[in-house]
Amino acid sequence: MLLSVLLSVVLLVVSQLLALTLGNLFAGAGLPVSISNVVTAVLYAGLAYFGLRGICQKILKMSMEDVNIPKFKLSPIWVLASFALPALVILLCVGVGGTWSVNPYAAQDVINIASGAIAFFGLAVGFVEEAIFRGVIMSTLQRRWNRKAAIWIPSVLFALLHLIGNDLDFLSIVQLLIAGTLVGVLFSFIVWESGSVWNSALVHGVWNMAMIGGILHIGSTPDSTCVVNFVLGNPSFLLSGGDFGIEASVPAIIGYTVFLLLALFCIRKRGNAVQNP
Fold this sequence. Notes:
There is one protein chain. The protein has helices at about 1-30, 35-60, 75-95, 105-145, 145-160, 170-195, 195-210, 235-240, 250-275; strands at about 100, 215-220, 230. By secondary structure, the chain is mainly alpha-helical. The protein is globular.
């Protein structure tokens, strides 16, 4: 169990670094940035997928279906939720007040940013992180211990890994750990309810596209690397997410909680249906 968890986390790091390195080489060789972003995303997802399949077959002696990675299929409720979650958080932020601004990027620059947001941060990162945390790690822990451990341990680990590479003060760390663990539990509940990481990967991926991919930035100060900025009128770290950013903010935590409760409702509804056919 420990070996599979460790190898899965190492696989995430190695496959991402390798994909980014190769993607940069392609871009340096003259491949358009937008296409390089797509190639990088495909490499990242592909390397991670085949690495996970090897871990499942050689170490865990489990199929991909056993680790919540069945054939591709999405549940309508989570397709809708994937767009509703970032929309709710954006509306909460706008409701607090602030100002919009658009950076004067050329059309090609916008295409480059959008391709990275959609292909890499959205589809690739969403799938890989869910396949590892809510796929292999969650399934392994549930097999070894129980569902509570399988939900909470990967969620806390997911939050802790986001501390790496970030220079955060104490309050920002606390806020990140709360938000990161909560969204991890949300993704775990989605997998529990649907039996598939594809649904949590979609919710995770669309969130990344909207909130961290470079298309939109919400914070107490504008970001020159993003296409659109919404600068909060209230600079409170609770609203902005502190040093980490909007993903750790109170509006984001509210959004995670709302959809976590939705997932829990669906789980209980399904359980009642099984008990009372």
